[in-house]
Amino acid sequence: MKGSRNSWPAALSGAEAGRLRFVAAWFAAVALTAAAAAAQVRLGIDVLEAQGFAPLKGRRIGLIANQTSVDSQGRRAADILRAAPGVRLVALFAPEHGLEGKVAAGREFPDSRDAASGLPVFSLYGPKATRAPSEEMLKGIDLMVYDVQDVGLRSYTYISTLGLAIEACAKAGVDFLVLDRPDPLGGTRVEGPVLDPKFRSFVGQWPIPLVYGMTPGELALMIAGEKWISKSRWISVIPMAGWQRKMTWRETGLAWVPPSPAMTDPERPFYLTATAYLAQIGGVSVGFGTPHPYQCVAAPWWDARLLAAWFARKKLPGIAFDPVSFTPRRGAYAGRKVHGVRLRLTDPAAAPLVPINFYALDAARELAGKRLYAEAARQGRSFAMFDKLMGTDKVRRALAAGVSGEELARSWAPALERFRALRAKYLIYR
User: Fold this and answer.
1) If DSSP codes are grouped into helix, strand and coil, which group holds residue 144?
2) pTM over 0.85
3) 118-135, pLDDT tens digit by residue?
4) Which domains, and CATH codes, for the chain?
């Protein structure tokens, strides 16, 4: 399969309670050629179905799923597994936003029952800080299947659910299978600060960069292989067929199902990565209350054309900055006209994203004499969530010291190189 590795070590030593085994279950698949007019990726669930569900036969299955858990034809994974011969699906488990993806961010929800199948749905974002399957939830299950579409950001909680579920299942003697899916930000992009374990939280569980460039299957192998959890056991990954690391979502040929209410189209993760952390600092509009949230950087005191020219001088690849003026309906400038730029991807795979948050702070200082971090600090703004999202307090301290966006981005380079070297042995797709 083009872009994929043809072998994987069957075992790694040093496991607790027996041997920790990593199995990348390779199945025959149709490779895509570089000359193909339109790429078509087959998801892990598609490959599993093509192979007759062999790894699931005769087992009692739990499924971690949400609205993204569909095959390339749009059919629910839960319905596919229920109808599969020899497969017994006994329970569903829902991450943040719920089984249907309709629960607001940060809002907990209780256990329920799936209307279509009648199966119990256990909440992994429930009351009493339930964030992993309990021993009671796992009774009667001997294999947990994970099939959730992520966006490729460390601060997105689905990968926290992934690792904590692997740990909980290992403690209960339950094997774990990941049905792999694309990284919408691409498999080559690695950006931002690496998480300091002292700042570990549910929006940052693992010591990886803010943008880590791995699929859920690859990350699952890394979480267990690097022993970032207290216990792990048999983990299997069903890889995709036809996915290549540089692919954007639109190149996959797959329909986009929003992983959360805010992720309405496959470009939204790029824009969110470029402005969401700037929004945490405040002082500008990033487009909330407009049809283009996360896609703008604007304020009443900016000149749109001057700001566009400032960003143009940066010569950032893969992204353009168009002058714009608008009146947001939400945020500090609700009802006031603001001026700035609207981000436009020209080559999504090449565009740097995380640094844009901090370049905007430089532009505010250079063009308008605004020191946005200092102003926010003087106003008593809390940066607790900012530190959690960054996975460190070093970024905040650098901003307080007046470090520029370019200096800040350069400071991440050594840790990012170490991460690239560490993750190399877990990459399934080459």
Assistant:
1) strand
2) yes
3) 999 999 999 988 999 999
4) 22-255 (3.40.50.12170), 268-381 (3.90.1150.140)
